[in-house]
Amino acid sequence: MNTLVMKFGGSSIGTTDALTQVLSIVLHEQEQWDRLVLVASALEGVTDALIEAAHLAQMGQQRGYRRIVANLRTRHLALIDELPLGTTERSALHADIDRLLFDMLDLYQGMAQINSKVTPEAVDATIGVGEKLAARIIAALLRQNNLRSVALDTTSLIVTDDVPGNATPNIALTRTQIAQNLLPLLERKIVPVVTGFIGATRNGKPTTLGRGGSDYTASVLGVCVNATEIWIWTDVDGMMTADPRDVPNARVIPTLSYAEAAEMAYFGARVLHTRMIGPLRDEKIPLRIKNVYKPQQIGTLITDTGSAHSHSIKAITYIPGLAVEASRTGEYAPIPAVYDKVTVAVPNNQIDIIMSAQSASHSLACFLIPTTAGSDAIHTIRLAMEEHLQLNPNTQSWTVKTITFVTAISANLDTWTTVSATILQLLKHIRILGITYGPSNMTLVVENKDAEEILALMHKLVVKSD
Questions:
Q1: Can you spell out the DSSP letters for 356-370?
Q2: Is 319 exposed, middle or buried (0-12, 13-18, 19+ CB in 10 A)?
Q3: Predicted TM-score (pTM) above 0.70
Q4: 237 pLDDT above the threshold of 80
Q5: Spatial CA neighbour of 35 closest among 171, 169, 283, 230
Q6: Are 388 and 322 in contact (CB under 8 A)?
Q7: pLDDT tens, 391-412?
Q8: How is residue 371 annotated by DSSP?
Q9: How far apart are CA 108 and CA 46, in angstroms?
Q10: Hey, what long-range contacts does 339-342 have (CB within 8 A, 24 or more apart)?
Q11: What single string gives the DSSP state of each residue in 260-279?
Q12: What are the two backbone dihedrals, phi and then psi, of residue 236, each rounded to the nearest 5 degrees?
């Protein structure tokens, strides 16, 4: 049976106009496909607010976390009251929203009474509420328009390990849960609106899949229901050759390979979650990125081959990072130890060592901070690194600074030998701290002050290679 999984991002459901678009899309696509599964993100900014509320609860600031919850209630109820819902549906939805928020307040109250550091597990138990609120609103809107629909929490579907803040689904166990709790709905022609971002361990403990994890949810669900395609609906026209906020002449990329899309997500493209491509690549399920406000546009199609055989640079991305350096040579052994301590000390902020370089008078190690770590991650991790470097006598001569990774992406770039020479010639007047190669990327480590200029110069190669 033809099955379509559609994920709607927070920016595509946060207003009545956006929800009207969602309704129109769903009503159209349910006529085209045998089965539909919808995945809902939280409204834009809600997850950040919930994380802040958890930290306020940790500090015992009852007024602060209660204010956040009250604001979230007002925001969601205002959105509901603007939708064309019947009295019964609206009243039931109001009651459901209040129940979810009151339950969350109880969890915050428990955190405040502990009077100690809140665990990542406790945060996981609260921050998935945003997706639950959004799923219920969308399902109610669909029912009001004569489409059988139900909101379904993925705590009953996606089984994960117990890594807080960045859990990994167990596909085999998830298939079993989906066969029991989701497939019967599809057989009855019911459209489930599934909560993104969250899952649960075998024992039922709530988990989350990392920031932006609703994409990952759609990927896992797609694999487990044998989806024909997966569509990610957002507020941009597709995957772009660069971030249009930084490069005004950035364009939509019509086709990408899985490898190219994965590299773009890893090195800073915010449209996709970094881990969602893997399951789709394994099962060869096509992925489309589409604009919810321009559903007639084709967007970006990501497949097994894409346009992987063309010799053209597909995109230029950038992502912030940190570097530790010392004006000496010597063993790197203490630095991985600091890395391990920082990873533990800063929950949910996964960081990767991208490269290290050494000479007779200088040592450097560079760390990439994923976009899923959140907007304040760079500052938090830098403080943690500086603290741990100072605590160890062997690392006190090392200093920390912020850097930027700028990456050119294209399939088989490591065999396209002329591109590196072209890029380096173009940037001959700019200091490059380091270079790394992968099968589909060439990444430059640069000073923050040079990143904007480098991005613009390298994007010219994208235009020329078309």
A1: EEE-SS-EEEEEE--
A2: buried
A3: yes
A4: yes
A5: 230
A6: no
A7: 888 788 888 999 999 999 988 7
A8: G
A9: 16
A10: 339/367, 341/384, 341/388, 342/381, 342/384, 342/385, 342/388
A11: HHHHHHHTT-TTS-TTSHHH
A12: -120, 165
- What's the token pair of residue 32? 């085209």
Q: For 278-339, where are the E strands, in sequence order?
A: 287-291, 300-303, 315-326
Q: Which of 206, 222, 128 is nearest to 167 (CA)?
A: 206
Q: Which residue has the tokens 């039922």?
A: 204
Q: Which DSSP letter does residue 12 get?
A: G
Q: How far apart are CA 274 and CA 168, in angstroms?
A: 12
Per-residue burial over 198-211, b if 16 or more Cβ lie within 10 Å, else e, is bbbbeeebbbbbbb
Q: Residue 8: enclosing H or E segment and its boundaries? A: strand 3-8
Strand order in the sheet with 432-438: 352-358, 363-368, 315-326, 399-409, 441-446, 432-438
* Tens of pLDDT, residues 58-83: 888 999 999 999 999 999 999 999 99
- Residue 285 exposure: Cα atoms within 13 Å on the Cβ side: 26
Contact between 123 and 164 (Cβ < 8 Å): yes
Instruction: State both tokens at 392.
Output: 């160890």
Partners of 356 in the β-ladder: 365
